[in-house]
Specification:
Layout lengths: L8 E6 L3 E3 L5 E2 L4 E6 L8 E5 L14 E2 L15 E5 L4 E9 L2 E11 L3 E3 L4 E3 L5 E5 L10 H10 L4 E4 L3 E3 L8 E7 L12 H15 L2 E6 L3 E3 L3 H5 L14 H18 L15 H19 L9 H13 L6 H4 L7 E2 L10 E2 L1 H7 L7 H46 L29 H6 L4 H4 L5 E5 L21 E9 L10 H17 L2 E4 L7 H14 L4 E4 L6 H11 L3 E5 L6 H10 L3 E2 L8 E3 L7 E4 L8 H4 L5 H9 L4 E5 L21 E2 L10 E2 L6 H16 L4 E6 L4 E7 L6 E7 L17 E4 L1 E13 L18 E9 L7 E8 L5 E7 L6 E8 L2 H14 L24 H5 L4 H8 L3 H6 L18 H11 L8 H8 L2 H11 L3 H17 L7 H22 L3 H4 L3 H13 E2 L18 E3 L6 E3 L3 E2 L2 E2 L11 H13 L4 H12 L24 H15 L10 E3 L16 E3 H14 L1 E4 ...
Parallel strand pairs: 1-4, 1-26, 2-9, 3-9, 12-13, 12-28, 13-16, 16-22, 22-23, 23-24, 24-27, 25-31, 27-28, 29-30
Antiparallel strand pairs: 4-7, 5-6, 5-8, 8-9, 10-11, 14-15, 17-21, 18-19, 20-21, 31-32, 32-33, 33-39, 34-38, 35-36, 35-39, 37-38, 40-43, 41-42, 44-59, 45-46, 47-48, 48-49, 50-55, 51-52, 53-54, 56-57, 57-58
Helix pairs in contact: 5-9, 6-9, 12-13, 17-18, 23-27, 25-26, 26-27, 29-41, 30-31, 30-32, 30-41, 31-32, 32-34, 34-35, 34-37, 37-39, 38-39, 39-40, 39-41
């Protein structure tokens, strides 16, 4: 079992309705695949099904099992849950998932690659190590001679042989037309011997054990030879005229064309200008006119698609006379005549659907003239339809004529065609489409056979291929007219096999092919699926399942000609194809050849290190890249003999499987035909002379070069040279670099191609110099194709011989100085330790190759090894290539985790976060990348967010990577900003600086990779340190919980200037520091920013309301208790007029213009007392008062102190007494937009209801505090949402507080049970218990909107806009505002649920869900309201009163923090309504929160925004991350 950090884990996110059946996911054995739920499925009861077998079970393609879920946190918040597969078996596996009533709401396939093994010790052979050579088996001769012929592959460095089929061949002698799939070809046995599959198996095993070579062979499922004996006995296995009557018209045409062939061969058309020997355009025109004048009229194909008119009319007349009515179940009452195609395809066999005739032609009466009139209509319509069929067949015949002529042009006239010569019976006009196993007879006699099923079943359709056809469609099935239109490019030696839909449709064929597959899988290590794209998928699936049951690690190669990667993937994923054959011959020039190398494998040089646990990403099919395939035309004919070596070298440098075909290396100057070639391959003889035709040795052709290239290919793959860079040096020179990311060795192959023959094409004599970074250790190989005097090529009669006039001049493993290709190599230094060698060539002639082994400069090699050594403390993957440091710098002597453990959460705020304005307070700023943008944070998160986008795709061209390669500015920035701090942070900075010292001395192209590695290590260590400082709720929580908790680190920090007024010196564990400005000791308590970037520094950082809405989530739930206490006490010290400031302004510039902050503060004290162990002790904590009286100047710290419970009492006392004052310095100095009346602040308790009420229509005292700013629209100085009167959330918060102080007093923890106030000149005592009861009595009477006109509590029935909701306020100066639907009542539900009747609460929540809930936030106003507008644009200034200058801030845009309260309220009341409702609510909650999770993961700010525009759209005026948004979502997860 691998340790967790080494195990490769891939995560596949499941999304509702996402079908990934055409997406290829490739995995290795030993990987773990995890399925996790995407946002659309979170909270749903999802089941994942797969046919990957359980441990110890056999694979059954149609047997699926459900995977169990694994929930790591064990909590209701199961956003991290996953189910997994431990992948140990190769093959293609399917998964699908469903939820609720939906059985399948998505799915796909995964392909697990086989593990191949060679040698006596069964050493693994990686797929990228494969070098394969194809042999046409029939050219191997007798089995006894195979070792001598196959040894050529071994001695040329190949490690896999591909045999074309070894079975008995058909009459045509094509390698792919098999007469018997089960027998070993008897030709391979010498006289008197009879070799069988066991003998072949023994040779295959010997090659594996002794030669380290594997063997694969073809499986051909599409067709069998036309002369196969078994197909004669089982004609049902092919497409014949009995089981496929739709082919009858095509057969008739095929026979007519055959008779045209015989007549032409006999010279009977010469008079019509059509001789047997077709040589020009006139002859082609004559073919066309014979088809149209003689052939088509004689066979009258249209009759197979027409109706016999008289019979149809007679039948219709009889029905009418009998008064028959149409069957409406069949016609659906719709008119329109339908024709039924005759399933037997006889002439005039089609019939009229009489129900449709009776429905369409209805006589006026049963009188004979009316009946006849109807019959006349029918006759006319049937004649029209017959005419349409005639026209369709005419179009088919036009296409057939075109295809026939096209075929003749290719086979007889084209230069690149076979030039078959005169038409004769052996070489007919065109290939026959059907077998005809009978004596010759006339066409008329043949037509009579159409009525004899025992004869018809032997007319079998041939196989072939159709240009541009859909490979997923079977062209021989009904619905296809390929045979009739003559669109098939036909193989006249092979019969297409008909499998039906499954084994039950053709038992013999399936059993026969199963046996064939089992034999192949038993004796070979892999298969090549011949003609894969036209093999029915379900057949190939079934057969490969059979093969894998025999050979579990079966290697499957295939060639696909679908023309689209999307379609390729259908085959690759369903069949589990290991490698797709790709052809270098498809490249038209060296540039394209180089591009193919880049496309088919490897990652870019300098790629970033990927984590072991990462998302599963789609891949392209693994390539088997061949310099030539056995189907390709000969490269020597298409290019030149000199190109064989360099093109081979380009292919060998590809990071995938590579290979060739026997004959290429020997420079055979023609295609070795799979049909016609009967000569034998030469045998191996190391001493073979160049002139030998029957033997080859290392001097033959390019064999010596190929051996060196194959060895190099295998070495590069085995040693992890997985990075690839392709450089097009000039039109003919391609340089391919393979780089090993752990040792940083490279091999650079420079290949000069010769696509054109140098004897006829002028190549440049001057080759541009090359610049190779690093130190050239050796020349791995240099090889040139040179001419020699060994006579010229003459095709041998018995052996497949190559061109003796060329050989390879090769040197291997030589020092650079001994190279005869390189003139000189100069060393230039490009930087601190980046040496570049300039290479000038003297003999890089067309057809040559040189490969250099390059290391880093020795100093850089040493330093990168040391860097890897220090990175091994974070992951063992850096161990390879690491070098221990002989002299460890002081800064690196302690592990980073130990240094990080000294940091506080306030330190971690500096290390990880800090936006630009926070950093500017310290005289710095966020790093700006030239030509791009600034990082979001100065801390590590700023970089990590960008690197997270770069890493998965290795986007090394990103401006950040470019900046790192260009200089050390960013590297220094990261460490220097920390070194300038004090204490442990400076030590972390020094650790980074020491690591960066090594980094700066390695080549620039590697810097992004190692910079990322150092940052990932630092960042993950910092996250671990953060988690350890937080509560168990966070430590044991889901990833989502921990991401939200990071918001606490993000928002809570201590800047250069203290944001909070000092707390009492008597309080313990308050942090102090020396002021960098005064040099005096000062408190440095963390404060809570409202949001980033807009509310992060200066006087705009701290707001009373925002602080206390966010405090419970970000500080209490995360375990930051003493910091939370300090904030509560610091704000307590600023109490004035019984209120807590809105904008804190360090207390000295505070504004007391909000009515709700004091109640949020009181709620937090309650939360602190209940949440923190011994939390009630905060009540006795001393508070240092800044304003002991309303009108005094600020007091010095410690001058006036009183316990917190006294401050709480003062706040309650002042409200019951009534608060009324005018803001200090009222006027434009403190608010440019406020009207004069707005500076008057009023807050009091309504004696009639107990509701806290206040405000006026010129100010806004709650969180919905937008003040109009537009003179143009005349809204300046007018609040958009004054919410005067009693705002619903303030009523809820005050009820919560009063209830709590009553309980506290009972427990003896709060000394007051009420207050004395002056009413009507008398002093009266109001007990808190009395106030509590009054609120309980008044609430629903005042706030519930029943919608019942008779409701006695309803003062304004005419203003009711929505019923079944709670009012937003009570007693507003504009009464209609009370009735607006907003999300604020949900806050009251959470803090004071006792105020609400369960059923009413639920009804109101349902309305809120339907009308207000958005993807991330809650609409701040009912979308049905006339002033609703969901898009906030603070810059827009126009004439619209409701919109100008962002007037609609709280009139529709979707704010995030109320969602937390809405969901918490839903959970609370759902629980009261029973388990079923609660379970449904939990699903809703998870579903809603999954959007927040996704946003949080993707956000470069790692936060949740303040608000979004309607439907969750991004709002550019919003804070990108807001404290209360993060806090309230975290509170929901805590409630779960």
């Amino acid at each position: 079992m691998l340790p967790q950090h080494l195990k490769q884990i891939r995560v596949l996110m499941l999304n509702d309705k996402e079908n990934l059946e055409r997406t290829l996911f490739r995995l290795d054995q030993g990987f773990e695949l995890q399925f996790r739920l995407g946002p659309s499925l979170q909270g749903r009861n999802v089941s994942v099904h797969t046919n990957y077998p359980a441990e110890g079970q056999r694979f059954e393609r149609h047997t699926f099992r459900v995977l169990p879920w694994n929930n790591p946190t064990g909590r209701e918040d199961d956003s991290d849950k996953f189910c997994c597969l431990d992948l140990k078996i190769a093959g293609s596996y399917q998964y699908y998932f469903g939820h609720g009533d939906t059985k399948r709401s998505g799915g796909g396939y995964i392909v697990v690659d086989p593990v191949l093994r060679v040698g006596a010790e069964d050493q693994p052979l990686s797929l990228d190590c494969i070098t394969i050579q194809t042999y046409l088996s029939k050219c191997l001769g007798c089995l006894d001679d195979w070792p001598d012929r196959l040894r050529v592959a071994k001695e040329s460095g190949y490690n896999m042989v591909h045999f074309t089929p070894l079975q008995t061949l058909g009459e045509s002698r094509s390698c792919y037309s098999l007469a018997d799939q089960l027998s070993f070809n008897p030709e391979f046995s010498p006289q008197g011997q009879s070799y069988n599959w066991t003998d072949v198996g023994a040779l295959v095993e010997k090659m594996k054990k002794e030669w380290n070579m594997l063997c694969i062979t073809d499986v051909v499922y599409n067709h069998t030879a036309a002369n196969s004996l078994w197909i004669k006995e089982h004609p049902e296995c092919g497409y014949n005229l009995v089981n496929s009557p739709h082919l009858r018209p095509a057969w008739v045409l095929d026979r007519a064309i055959w008779h045209l062939t015989t007549r032409m061969a006999d010279g009977r058309y010469t008079a019509k200008g059509l001789p047997a020997d077709i040589t020009d355009e006139a002859h082609l025109n004559a073919v066309r006119s014979v088809l149209w004048q003689d052939v088509y009229p004689q066979i009258r194909l249209w009759e197979f698609y027409q109706v016999k008119v008289d019979s149809a009319v007679e039948q219709f007349r009889t029905l009418l006379n009998n008064g028959t009515k149409p069957d409406h179940n069949k016609t659906g009452g719709k008119k329109g005549l339908k024709i039924i195609q005759d399933p037997s395809y006889r002439r005039y066999g089609n019939t009229v659907d009489m129900d449709s005739a009776l429905e369409t032609f209805v006589p006026q009466s049963s009188f004979p003239q009316h009946v006849e009139e109807c019959c006349g209509w029918l006759r006319q319509r049937v004649n029209e339809l017959n005419g349409e069929q005639y026209h369709i067949v005419h179009q088919h015949q036009e296409q057939a004529a075109t295809c026939i002529v096209g075929n003749i042009v290719y086979e007889r006239l084209a230069d690149h065609g076979p030039k078959l010569g005169p038409v004769c019976r052996k070489n007919p006009l065109v290939t026959r489409y059907f077998t005809f196993p009978y004596q010759e007879m006339t066409l008329e006699q043949e037509m009579l056979l159409l009525d004899q099923p025992d004869k018809m079943c032997h007319f079998l359709a041939h196989n072939g291929w159709v240009m541009g056809d859909d490979p997923l469609r079977n062209f021989a099935e009904p619905g296809s007219n390929v045979y009739l239109r003559r669109e098939l490019i036909c193989w006249g030696d092979s019969v297409k096999l008909r499998y039906g839909n499954g084994p039950e449709d053709c038992p013999y064929l399936w059993a026969h092919m199963q046996k064939y597959t089992e034999i192949t899988a038993k004796y070979f290590h892999g298969v090549r699926l011949d003609n894969c794209h036209s093999t029915p998928l379900y057949v190939a699936e079934f057969m490969l399942d059979v093969a894998r049951a025999v050979c579990p690690n079966l290697y499957v190669a295939a060639e696909l000609f679908t023309g689209s990667e999307d379609l390729d993937n259908v085959f690759v994923t369903k069949l589990g194809i290991t490698s797709l054959i790709r052809e270098a011959m498809s490249a038209g020039d060296s540039h394209e050849e180089g591009r193919l190398v880049y496309r088919y494998g490897g990652e870019p040089v300098g790629a970033l290190v990927q984590p072991s646990l990462r998302p599963l990403t789609p891949s392209i099919a693994h390539a088997m890249f061949l310099d030539v395939t056995h189907d390709n035309e000969c490269p020597i004919q298409l290019r030149s003999a000199l190109d064989s070596l360099p093109s081979s070298a380009i292919v060998s440098m590809a990071c995938c499987a590579t290979g060739s075909t026997r004959g290429y290396d020997e420079l055979v100057p023609h295609q070795i035909s799979v049909v016609k070639e009967e000569r034998l391959y030469p045998k191996w003889n190391p001493a073979a002379p160049p002139t030998s035709t029957g033997e080859v040795g290392s001097q033959t052709g390019i064999i010596a070069g190929k051996l060196a290239l194959n060895r190099l290919h295998q070495e590069l793959a085995a040693q992890g040279f997985v990075q690839v860079y392709v450089d097009q040096v000039d039109a003919d020179i391609v340089a391919v670099t393979r780089h090993c990311p752990s040792t940083h060795q490279s091999v650079v192959a420079v290949c000069r191609t010769a696509f054109w023959n140098p004897k006829t094409h002028q190549y440049y004599s001057n080759v541009p110099p090359m610049f190779i970074p690093g130190k050239i250790e050796e020349v791995v190989l240099e090889a040139r194709t040179v001419e020699r005097h060994a006579g010229s090529y003459k095709k041998d009669d018995n052996n497949i011989n190559g061109m003796p006039e060329y050989t390879v001049e090769i040197k291997e493993h030589i020092p650079l100085l001994e190279s005869s290709v390189v003139k000189q190599a100069g060393v230039t230094s490009k930087g601190r330790s980046e040496f570049v060698q300039e290479i000038t060539f003297q003999r890089l002639t067309p057809g040559s190759v040189i490969a250099f082994r390059v290391s880093l400069d020795p100093k850089a090699q040493q330093l990168v090894g040391v860097l890897r050594y220090y990175l091994t403390q974070f992951s063992p993957k850096y161990r390879r290539g690491s070098v221990a440091d002989s002299n460890t710098p002081l800064a690196l002597q302690k592990p980073l985790a130990q240094l990080m453990s000294q940091l506080t959460l306030a330190d971690l705020n500096v290390l990880l976060f800090r936006c630009d304005s926070e950093e500017q307070e310290d005289g710095g700023g966020c790093y700006s990348i030239p030509g791009w943008e600034s990082l979001k944070y100065a801390g590590l998160q700023g970089l990590m967010s960008v690197l997270a986008d770069i890493r998965p795709n290795n986007d090394l061209g990103h401006p950040l990577c470019a900046n790192l390669r260009q200089g050390d500015w960013l590297i220094d920035y990261v460490s220097n900003r920390l070194i300038h701090k004090e204490g442990p942070l400076a030590q972390v900075g020094q650790w980074l600086a020491a690591m960066f010292d090594y980094l700066k001395h390695i080549p620039r192209y590697l810097i992004p990779c190692y910079f990322d590695a150092i940052l990932v290590a630092t960042y993950t260590t910092a996250l671990d340190a953060t988690s350890k400082l937080m509560s168990s709720f966070i430590q044991n929580g889901s990833t989502f919980v921990r991401l939200l908790a990071l918001g606490s680190v993000q928002m809570c920090g201590a800047g250069r200037f203290p944001a909070l007024p000092p707390v009492s010196a008597a309080i313990e564990d308050v942090p102090y520091r020396l002021s960098s400005i005064t040099g005096q000791k000062e408190q440095c308590c963390v404060s809570l920013a409202a949001g980033l970037p807009h509310f992060s520094s200066g006087i705009f950082r701290c707001w009373g309301r925002d602080t206390f809405i966010a405090l419970r989530g970000l500080m209490l739930l995360t375990g930051r208790h003493s910091e939370a206490r300090n904030i509560i006490l610091a704000f307590a010290g600023t109490l004035r007029h019984g209120l807590i400031p809105n904008l804190l302004g360090e207390g000295r510039c505070a504004r007391y213009n909000c009515r709700d902050a004091v109640w949020w503060w009181l709620q937090c004290i309650q939360d602190y007392a209940t949440h923190v162990p011994q939390g009630h002790e905060i009540l006795r904590c001393p508070v240092t008062r800044m304003y002991p009286t309303d009108d005094c100047e600020p007091c010095k710290p410690g001058e006036v102190e009183q316990p917190l419970y006294d401050v709480i009492q003062e706040a309650l006392q002042r409200h019951l007494e009534g608060v009324s004052f005018r803001e200090r310095n009222a006027g434009p100095k403190i608010d440019m937009n406020m009207r004069d009346e707005g500076f008057n602040v009023v807050a009091k308790v309504d004696p009639a209801t107990g509701f806290v009420t206040g405000g006026n229509r010129f100010n806004c005292g709650t969180w919905m505090d937008k003040m109009g700013e537009s003179e143009r629209a005349r809204n300046k100085g007018m609040p958009a949402t004054p919410r005067d009167g009693a705002a619903v959330e303030i009523v809820g918060l005050s009820k919560s507080t009063v209830r709590w102080v009553v309980e506290l007093h009972k427990k003896g923890l709060f000394p007051y049970d009420g207050v004395k106030v002056h009413r009507d000149g008398k002093e009266v005592f109001i007990s808190f218990a009395q106030w509590n009861n009054q609120l309980q009595q008044s609430f629903e009477a005042g706030f519930w909107v029943s919608g019942d006109p008779k409701d006695p509590n309803e003062k304004h029935p005419d203003l009711v806009h929505k019923k079944g909701i709670y009012k937003d306020s009570y007693g507003a100066s504009s009464p209609w505002c009370d009735y607006q639907l907003r999300p604020n009542f949900t806050i009251a539900m959470v803090v004071a649920p006792e105020l609400f009747t369960v059923e009413r609460a639920w009804k109101a929540l349902e309305v809120a869900e339907k009308k207000l809930l958005g993807p991330l936030g809650m609409k701040t106003l009912d979308p049905d309201d006339m002033v609703f507008c969901g898009v906030y644009d603070n810059a827009l200034d126009n004439d619209n009163y409701n919109l100008a200058r962002g007037f609609n801030y709280h009139q529709g845009p979707e704010w995030l923090w109320p969602v937390g309260y809405f969901l918490r309220a839903k959970l609370y009341f759902a629980k009261k309504l029973g388990e079923k409702t609660y379970a449904k609510t939990v699903i809703l909650v998870k579903n809603v929160l999954s959007q927040h999770y996704t946003h949080l993961e993707r956000s470069p700010w790692k936060g949740l925004p303040e608000l979004t525009n309607e439907n969750g759209q991004h709002c550019s005026f919003s804070c990108e991350t807001q404290a209360w948004s993060l806090a309230t979502v975290l509170e929901v997860l805590h409630d779960l």
